[in-house]
Amino acid sequence: MPLELVTIPCLADNYAYLIHDPETGETAVVDVPEPGPILAALNAHQWRLTDILITHHHDDHIQGVETLRTATGAMVLGAAADAHRLPRLDLALTEASSFSIGQEFAQVIDVPGHTLGHIAFYFPQSGLAFTADSLMAGGCGRLFEGTARQMHASLQKLAALPPETLICSGHEYTTSNLRFAATVDPDNPALQARITDTAAKRAKGQPTVPSTLATELATNPYLRAHLPALKAAVGLPKADDATVFAEIRARKDKF
Question: Which residue numbers are catalytic?
């Protein structure tokens, strides 16, 4: 039985996610921008929080961890490489680590770029990938600590997951991400259709996450830097994929 997924809007434009195993009753949250909405969702579903999964050290992903730990007694899991700047970890993870939520085992994926210690969580049986500020809906995170080549390599790991995987990213940035994408991929009908769909969802106040990896592969320019049309659009028809990715990311920074 797949894990149940609940998407929780937090702060101005963050998301946290609950995942729940109905067989065992175990429930995890991915990132804690603020505790209130998460506690409210747990109460509404009458779920008991057992685990807190942290993707990276930025305050808008961890500032509610201690309050939530105190309120629930949940274990905290995060990257061993970032243990010095995360809340106290009960389990420090590396890419070789595996852990379970209920009956399903998760894989840890190192995805440096946005930060050096950023990790993603992949649940293959349920087809869920929690990517936070690495691969995002229609975009990717700003390069605060890592290099463009690191981020490109990180996104290639995620792009290799099954296309039906749900990409659970950390922010409601989709509208602006797609508006930029159209400047480098203007003749992409899938992108234009996604822009229309995103506008309709936001007009109703609906989240635009999660998205499928198939949708990202078809519309996200950071996953399409290998395509001749994208290379030509940024004036680098002969460049390697990572160089084209770097140019697209640099353009977004100025957009």
Answer: 56, 58, 60-61, 114, 133, 171
